[in-house]
């Protein structure tokens, strides 16, 4: 059964008794449907179904802004989660990882990408380390850039922890990457020729 879109249920409440949570996340206990609708009107809020299979079902009073933010959060989470049938591997490293360890991990990522797996990378900021975690993500992507791209861009998951998800490029993206790379190499070759002529 597919989950209904998260949002206001309007006045369509099929249950007589509900468990209601206010917009600050505090429980208001069980109440009659009419009472919940009255609260909704009084405070100009919207009712959102949180848990339908609870007894009684749980509804939350929310502002339009809260609903919008929650919808964005859920969409982002869905984007970062693998599609059915796609294997997602996870790898966790410290921001102070040694160069040779990073090379080993990157080889592992490249092997997973080859197999068309999604790879979730988590970087933990070590204490007293001022490494730019986003630069580290870009450095990792750079080593597998001929095959991989971001499925979900690097973001801070919580304090001191950042994540991203890499995926294999589609055939179309690979062609565009190769074309771009070839034209860059041609430009570089012509630049080199020019500088050689100048030196002579």
Automatic annotation (TrEMBL):
Q: Where does the protein principally reside?
A: mitochondrion
Per the record, the GO terms for biological process are: mitochondrial translational initiation; ribosome disassembly
| An example molecular function term from Gene Ontology annotations | translation initiation factor activity
Record Gene3D superfamilies: Translation initiation factor 3 (IF-3), C-terminal domain (3.30.110.10), Translation initiation factor 3 (IF-3), N-terminal domain (3.10.20.80)
Annotated InterPro entries:
T_IF-3_C_sf, T_IF-3_N_sf, Translation_initiation_fac_3, Translation_initiation_fac_3_N
Localization per Swiss-Prot or TrEMBL = Mitochondrion
User: Which parts of this chain are annotated as the region Disordered?
Assistant: 175-200
Specify the Translation initiation factor 3 N-terminal domain's residue ranges.
10-76
Q: Provide GO CC annotations from the record.
A: mitochondrion
Report the Pfam families cross-referenced here. IF3_N (PF05198)
Q: What are the UniProt keywords, alphabetically? A: Initiation factor, Mitochondrion, Protein biosynthesis, Transit peptide
Q: Which NCBIfam families match?
A: infC (TIGR00168)
Q: Which family does it belong to?
A: Belongs to the IF-3 family.
Q: What is the role of the protein in this entry?
A: IF-3 binds to the 28S ribosomal subunit and shifts the equilibrium between 55S ribosomes and their 39S and 28S subunits in favor of the free subunits, thus enhancing the availability of 28S subunits on which protein synthesis initiation begins.
Give the protein name, as stated in the record.
Translation initiation factor IF-3, mitochondrial
